[in-house]
Description:
single chain; alpha/beta; Rossmann fold; Alpha-Beta Plaits; 3 domains; five-stranded parallel beta sheet; five-stranded mixed beta sheet; extended; disordered N terminus
Amino acid sequence: MGEQSSQKPEILIVDDSKVIRKAATKMLGDGYIIHEAVDGRDGWQQIQQNSDISVIFTDVQMPVMDGMELLSSIRSADDERIVNLPVIMITGQGDTEEVKREVFEAGATDFIAKPFSSIDLLTRAKSYAQFNTKVVELEKQTGHDKLTGLFNAKSFEGQGDKALSFALRHSVSISAVYLEIDGFQDVFLSHGKSVATQIIIAVAKRFDNVLRTEDVAARVGVAKYALLLPLTNHTHAKIVVDRIRESINKLVFDTGKEKIRISLAAGMTSPEIKEEMRFVDIMEQADTSLKRALAKAGEKVASYVNEQVKLNEDAIVEDEKTHLDQDMQRAFKLILEGDYFRIERDHLKPLVERLLPFIEYVKNQDDPIIEDDYR
C-alpha cells in the first residue's frame, strides 16, 4: 500500500448490479474502504490508478468488459503489484461447475457464489487482505535450491509453518503436494547426468506457468518437488495438480538419439486444520499419498483424503465380515448341538445364503446323496 494510504484495507467491488455493490459494501461494514466499479473496464481503470487496492471482488457476467476479461487484464499486466492482486470471482446461480473451473484456471484466487452471505464476504476479505502482505514476506525468505532456483527443503518447511499458522488463525484452507518425476532413475542411468539435469530444471520452470504468486514451490529431493498452496481447498488443489501434470506431459527432451517424455506422480493433502497440527504432519500426509501414487498403474495421483476414506471403508467391510463369520460359527454350533431353534431370526437368511452353494453341490452329485424320501 502507498505511504499516504489509510490503515484500513481497500477493496474494489466490480459488478453491474447496484444492489449487489451496495449489499457487499454494507456487509463489509466500517472495517474497509470500499471502491465500486460498474463493469470490468471501470474496474480496470481504478486498479491502475489506485495502488492501495488490496483485494478485488468481481462478477463474472457483466457488459462492456466481463469478469473473465478483467481477470485476464490483471494477470497479464506489466505491473507486478497488479498481477499479484487477489481476485475473487462472483459467480451467479446459473453458472455451471465448468464455468467455475474455467474461472480458477484463468487465475482467480477464489470465487464466491450468489447469493453470498456476510460471513462468506467478510471471511474472504479479511483473509486475502491480510495474506496479501504475507506474500512479500514469503518471497524475502532465503534458502533456495541452486540448480532450479526453487526453495530448498528447509526453507520450504519454514514457510509452511508460517502458512499453517495463518490458516489456523483465520480458519482457511491449506493444501500441500509432493511431486516426483516417475522413472527418473531409469532416465538417469540411460541418458546420463546432463540430460537428467535438464529435465529437473525444465520441470521446475513449468511451475511458474501454473502457480499463483502466493503459492510456494521447492525442490526437496533429486527429482522430487513440493508445493504449498495457501488458501486452497482439496478441489482447487486437484485442479492445480492436473494443470501441472498436463504441462509436464507436453515436455519433449531431444537427446540427439531419441526423444524423451516424462510424467509426474503426485501425492496431495488438504487436511482439516487443527490446533495441534504441525506442518511436518501435513507433509507426511502428502508423502504417504505420493508413495501410493508411485505404486499405482495408470494415473499416478493420490489424495490423502480419498485414501483415508477408502481405508476406513475397507476397515468397516472387514469388521462386518468378521462379525458375520462369528455369527455363522455360533449358528453351526447350535445346529450340531440340536439347538437350532435358538438361532436368531436375523441370522437365518445369511446362514441359508452361505449353505445354498453347498446344497447345490450335493444335489448335483452323480450318486444322489439327498434322496427324495428325505426331502
